[in-house]
Write a structure and sequence with these properties.
It is built from 30 helices and two strands. A two-stranded antiparallel ribbon has the order 1-2.
Length: 621
């Protein structure tokens, strides 16, 4: 396996002064992170996925229960299986309820933990204080990472990175102190990471990279990276087979899930040639944003096409950097390791397998990959200080200044995440006509009741994106609120033609049809939702009320009873059972159901009115 004498593992105990130095650096990093992100304690949720994960998720809002634990383990939602992330959201609701500040602070704490883990891991493996601190500082404060920290809905980034770094830490320990228990810890940490975010599928490849540097498991006679025989490299791969199996399994689960959700971009909408062009260009765009993080927004729309010069130029840049890193692999292995860390960890989200639609790249995808670029920068700076006397004076100050600038820019970028209106007004100013910004602002004003202002944004969204499902459905919901029900049905039906497997659109359509008195149509719509999502409580509840209006009382009661099996605290279902009992002349049972509904939800006026009606009937009798 080669020499290992240069690693901290073999240098003996740390002195108290070195311990104090490490603690001082960690404390400084913590203070810097808090200075940037503590402001999020006063922020609200946004409608940008926070509603899906928390504010409109009745299961998560119930907090940590045994039933919810099993739900998290089995739920495949939004094209992803992420039970560990779901459990943290439930924990937040258990502790903070819907106080958004608490949820934000948990994200900040996770970011702090990752920052500390990154510093201690690099320090333990390299015994280089200032490069390790520089990498951790850039990771903690770079503006590209604001999205992952300030956005509650992106909890999976900050959470999964903790497991990523713990996997690397336990792996490096196992390399030097073999044992079944230590390897089992590596596998466990990796599995928990995958259960937080599937993007960790590339981690086994990153472990192969750190075998080269800084673990230096492939060394020549002079301590430089050596060219080993294929069988020797094969041994490093074989020991990681359990990790590759887990990664392959998670990749398969994710592909099946996004396919079932209908969120996997089609080869017609996103041709392979275009995906490859986008991947090449965005690899370089991320580097551009790393150097010059200006105009960062939560949604980057696709261009109509990529000019040939842009694709060719980006490909040339990638090729030149790759060739140089390979050329220097024996003298400066950290360049190759950092560069391929970036390329490989970014690969699952670079767009070749397109999940979702309409965005070409995302700041959140850089959260882990940029660690590789930061390693290249930090250890290159260290080499400068070793080779040139002038660099010993200037490089530390330049590094500190760069970190400070990143912190200031991140503080300013974080402010945009205060709430939905602030975030997407800023996005629209940076990217005029941005589909997601128009949609988010329109929905925000629609839910506030400012229908005229909502119409301004949602109508513009439909005009610019007449073939977009969300644009059509959101505009249809606005028309429903405005009382233009026939038009609302038409827009929902247009959306369904584009994507028949979207349960939310069927649910909205059914509710509008019920308002129009089209009970047969409403039953069909709600039944289609249940065919797509058998556990959908809203669809089953609405179907129950539709059957009640159609005077199919026994069928309605069966639907309400089924709702209560999934959601025992659903007051609306008890109200429905009370209505059925009242129509069937069972006034005592009806009164009991209405009282239960009011106990669970005292503000449910329908149940209160129904209970008064029963009492009035009893007085007349």
């Amino acid at each position: 396996m080669g020499k290992r004498g240069s690693l901290v593992h073999n240098t003996g105990e740390k002195t108290p002064s070195l311990e104090r130095k490490s603690l001082g650096i960690i404390l400084a990093l913590c203070c810097a992170v808090l200075a940037v992100y503590l402001q999020t304690a006063t922020f609200d949720f946004t409608r940008y996925d926070d509603n899906y994960f928390i504010t409109e998720n009745s299961v998560v809002q119930q907090g940590l229960t045994l039933d919810n634990f099993f739900w998290a383990l089995t739920a495949v939602q939004n094209g992803t299986w992420q039970p560990v992330t779901w459990l943290t959201h439930m924990f937040d609701c258990h502790v903070f309820g819907l106080n958004a500040g608490g949820h934000h602070i948990v994200n900040v704490i996770f970011h702090l933990v990752s920052t500390g883990l990154l510093f201690t891991l690099l320090l333990r493996l390299t015994n280089a204080y200032y490069p390790s601190a520089f990498v951790a500082g850039l990771f903690a404060l770079h503006p590209l990472h604001v999205e992952s920290v300030a956005w509650v809905g992106e909890r999976r980034d900050v959470l999964s990175t903790i497991w990523w770094l713990l996997t690397m830490s336990t792996y490096s320990t196992w390399v030097f102190k073999r044992g079944f228990i230590r390897y089992a810890l590596v596998v466990l940490c990796f599995a928990l990471g995958l259960m937080s975010k599937p993007m960790l599928v590339s981690l086994p490849l990153i472990l192969l990279l750190i075998d080269v540097w800084p673990l230096k498991r492939v060394l020549g006679e002079e301590g430089l990276v050596n060219t080993l025989a294929p069988s020797q490299y094969g041994r490093l791969v074989v020991e990681k087979i359990p990790l590759f199996v887990l990664a392959a399994g998670m990749s398969l689960i994710t592909m099946i899930a996004v396919g079932q959700e209908g969120s996997l971009g089609s080869s017609i909408q996103y041709p392979w040639s275009f995906r490859v062009e986008n991947a090449i260009v965005t690899y370089v765009k991320y580097l551009q944003f790393t150097i010059w993080p200006a105009g960062l927004i939560p949604h980057y729309p696709y261009p109509a096409y990529y000019p040939l010069w842009q694709v060719a130029g980006s490909l040339l840049i990638l090729a030149l950097i790759t060739l140089y890193c390979l050329k220097e692999i024996t003298r400066q292995p950290y360049l190759g390791v950092g560069w391929f860390w970036y390329l490989l960890s970014m690969f699952p989200v670079i767009g070749l397998v397109q999940q979702g639609s309409g965005f070409s790249m995302a700041d959140r995808y850089t959260y882990v990959p940029l660690i590789g670029i930061f390693i290249m920068i930090a250890w290159s700076a260290k080499r400068l200080t070793e080779q040139y006397r002038w660099a010993k004076s200037y490089v530390p100050w330049m590094s500190a200044l760069l970190t400070l600038v990143c912190g200031i820019l991140s503080f300013m970028q974080t402010r945009h995440w205060r709430d939905t209106e602030t975030l997407f007004a800023y996005t629209l100013a940076q990217s005029p006509g941005n589909h997601i910004a128009l949609q988010q602002l329109g929905v925000e004003y629609r839910e506030r009741g400012d229908l005229a202002r909502a119409y301004e944004f949602l109508a513009e969204d439909v005009r610019l994106n007449p073939g977009d499902i969300d644009a059509l459905a959101n505009f249809g919901q606005l028309l429903e609120k405005m009382g233009r029900l026939i038009e609302a049905v038409a827009y929902h039906q247009k959306a369904i033609v584009l994507n028949p497997s979207n349960p939310e659109i069927h649910l909205n359509l059914g509710q509008i049809q019920a308002r129009l008195g089209d009970l047969a149509g409403a039953q069909t719509s709600f039944s289609r939702v249940l065919a797509l999502q058998p556990d959908s409580v809203p669809a089953r509840l609405n179907l129950g009320y539709t059957l009640f209006l159609a005077k199919e009382y026994n069928a309605a009661a069966a639907q309400f009873a089924s709702v209560l099996k999934k959601a025992p605290q659903m007051a609306e279902a008890y109200n429905g059972l009370g209505l059925v009992a009242m129509e069937q002349g069972r006034l005592g049972d009806a009164a009991d159901s209405f009282r239960t509904a009011l106990r669970l939800k005292p503000e449910l006026q329908h149940a209160r009115d129904n209970l008064k009606l029963i009492e009035h009937q009893r007085e007349k009798q």
